[in-house]
Amino acid sequence: DSSASASQEAGTTGFGVTAHCSFFLTPSQRLERCMSIVTSMTAGVSEREANDALNAYVCKGLPQHEEICLGLFTLILTEPAQAQKCYRDLALVSRDGMNIVLNKINQILMEKYLKLQDTCRTQLVWLVRELVKSGVLGADGVCMTFMKQIAGGDVTAKNIWLAEGVLDILTEQREWVLKSSILIAMAVYTYLRLIVDHHGTAQLQALRQKEVDFCISLLRERFMECLMIGRDLVRLLQNVARIPEFELLWKDIIHNPQALSPQFTGILQLLQSRTSRKFLACRLTPDMETKLLFMTSRVRFGQQKRYQDWFQRQYLSTPDSQSLRCDLIRYICGVVHPSNEVLSSDILPRWAIIGWLLTTCTSNVAASNAKLALFYDWLFFSPDKDSIMNIEPAILVMHHSMKPHPAITATLLDFMCRIIPNFYPPLEGHVRQGVFSSLNHIVEKRVLAHLAPLFDNPKLDKELRAMLREKFPEFCSSPSPPVEVKIEEPVSMEMDNHMSDKDESCYDNAEAAFSDDEEDLNSKGKKREFRFHPIKETVVEEPVDITPYLDQLDESLRDKVLQLQKGSDTEAQCEVMQEIVDQVLEEDFDSEQLSVLASCLQELFKAHFRGEVLPEEITEESLEESVGKPLYLIFRNLCQMQEDNSSFSLLLDLLSELYQKQPKIGYHLLYYLRASKAAAGKMNLYESFAQATQLGDLHTCLMMDMKACQEDDVRLLCHLTPSIYTEFPDETLRSGELLNMIVAVIDSAQLQELVCHVMMGNLVMFRKDSVLNILIQSLDWETFEQYCAWQLFLAHNIPLETIIPILQHLKYKEHPEALSCLLLQLRREKPSEEMVKMVLSRPCHPDDQFTTSILRHWCMKHDELLAEHIKSLLIKNNSLPRKRQSLRSSSSKLAQLTLEQILEHLDNLRLNLTNTKQNFFSQTPILQALQHVQASCDEAHKMKFSDLFSLAEEYEDSSTKPPKSRRKAALSSPRSRKNATQPPNAEEDTGFRWSRHQQLPRLEEEDTKPKPTKRKRKGSSAVGSDSD
Predict the structure, then answer these.
(1) What residues have CB less than 8 Å from 807, skipping those under 6 apart?
(2) Which of 226, 327, 343, 960 is the most buried (most CB within 10 A)?
(3) What are phi and psi of 915, to 5 degrees?
(4) 1021 Cβ contact list (under 8 Å, min separation 6)
(5) DSSP 334-345
(6) What is the pTM of this model?
(7) pLDDT tens-digit profile of 478-526?
């Protein structure tokens, strides 16, 4: 009792003080602190004493209650063995119906789920299952947030595990699910969408069936709850219509709607109901949603490429991910409705993102579904119920694609015409009226002033124009010739004020992805995307106009900004900039002015972001001089502050606003932290900056900033590389993303410079736990990029055995770069058994000389060691049953070592050494191993490798008699045992028997012409007779 009271007292005094400092702790630090509080109270005492201590602490107040709840929650996530006990304690001490825990789960799911370790993810699912079992109020909201984390178009193991885990909870607790109408609808919408992705393997088929059963049961029993989904329920049901259970459901929907619900009148009722935003949003993960909202609210038109490239790599790079495009398009049309202020600005418009999604689609089925998703709200559009914002993107994609991508416009117009009779013939009249209402509303709202320039454009083929005139004669008459018509669109809806010279790169992807003609190469082989540079250059010569922003600033700040604009030299501008920073840090500063101030600074200091940042000659003086720019004063002030200071957060907010308006500020900050003496040892400030940006993620922010640096200044990229790899190893060394950026643009001199950095210990670009995966990734890179990657790897002191398994991925026709680099490195190594095993695992092919080359070299340098390793491998593989070997080699995608492979490679080596003085095959270990194999192998192998085995026989023939007698025993015993236990040919593969029939005639020539015969026989599997 005394120890328990002491620990309570310690908790009161010690943690009472730190509670005041909790404001400055990160969320993870706070959870760790809460966990330590709980652990200090419960360690070493009985369960009853622990409960008493926890309850006593909770009763002190709300902060203490929150600490205990969060501490127990953290223990549940991190200590699976204690989870059951901690959940019981949590249920006992919680005074708010678990509200604190539910809020924390939602926060983690929305912000941190991707960063959770597997154990924590597993425990989080377990905890939600327990909350649902207990019927905790609000658990349905957590389940819906969990479903949002299940990514569409993703069949990776972790995503499938999550989909199945949540489905199991909903299936097990079915009665609880039926109590929440919104949960029923959300679960049906989610799993109807996921069914499309789950096909192929047995595991996915099993999951798919569970999803089908789950959705069908809810649709049939609770159809009116599902009706709240609206018209997108029909779209999802169309995608699964061929599954037998849904085929029967469709028959009821069309022919017997009353069977589903007395209130359900038919499919038209569903199609005329607009789908709520919450359903469209639920099929994007929080990370996808954040990135899309960032692009549509913060990214300037013309600067979107790096964001689109990142999104493409992250979410749209696999064949399975094509189905995600429909979710993205429906989300953009139905959820992302920008304000008039954004619409009239130079922010990336919605139609440009949709155009990018359409032009990068690689599947015909996905393309058709994407077009349907784009036009879906048109089909039953009603101006009274539906929003113009839902139909605006489709018409603008067609309008803006006419010049740069007429094929896109044509295919969309064709789809619009053909969908009318084909969507659902009995409702053709309703669909025609819906499309007509959409077009009429577009003209009324002046999204486009006239449709004739679009519908009757000379760039369209005659048949399409005729079909458009037939379907929509009302919109095809033009007041003047189509080419001359000026589209008078309101600024709020159109981007023409930004588009006059930029139509040709409106999606900023198709040329880069698919057109070799539009890619320029400079003298160093660097790919440069010039289409954006004219955009920047056109505004360079214009005088800076910050008048619109000045009116929104306080008078004192306005005066300082004007002084900054008039400043004649850098020193004067720096003084004014410091005054501005000081004013921002004053207590009464209105933080809402940060965005306006950032706009002013971005306009005034555009020159900062042009040209090269790094001095031509790098010295301490030139580096210090290069970081003396006025804008860098914000960085300097940041470096001088403590991170728990409120002023620190304010300056980070200012930088975040600047970053949204000028993304290059990110790599300029990295340069400052690398080059300035005032920033020595402060590189970690960049992490705080990354977390303060809209991206909110260090890895994403770092990769995007390095990509921007790569596009602008390769010298600076190389200069930053050592410090970036050193300061952020977890972000740079775990994948090949940054390495690929670097090797894609460097020249041979810069490569040599990086190699020197590695060898001097200033740079580490690979580590043992991830180097193999990175080199495997590099197999898809360009030739020079691969050679650079291998040169940088070889500069490190990483044992070659670490990456030798890559041999199993290398094909002689597809990966010559990696094979040649590996071959040259292997020749410097003393062979280990693992190396020899991997080398021998390569499939035998007449044109693939890799294995023979390295074995020959090792024969010359390390003959005894190689002989021992080969003996060991021969004996090990010979002891395995033949059937198991066959299964093993055929079931795995990667090459597996089999006895036949070893013998084939040895036979190739024997042929290669025939005319040399090398006596590798006269060594005792090799001959002993060949004897061992010959004694137990079948006749097919004996015949196929007769020349090889004859070496062992010659060796024995020249030996004394006692060894011969031993040989007879060795040869006779296994054969007799084999024949006693198995019938003839029991161990022979069918392929061997087929080959023997084909090769028998050649065998007769072997005594006279061994070499040619051997070469002819090389391609076959085996030779010999049919009997043992």
Answers:
(1) 822, 838, 839, 841, 842, 895
(2) 226
(3) -95, 20
(4) 900, 944, 989, 991, 992, 994, 995
(5) HT----HHHHTT
(6) 0.57
(7) 554 433 333 333 333 333 333 433 444 456 543 333 333 333 334 334 3
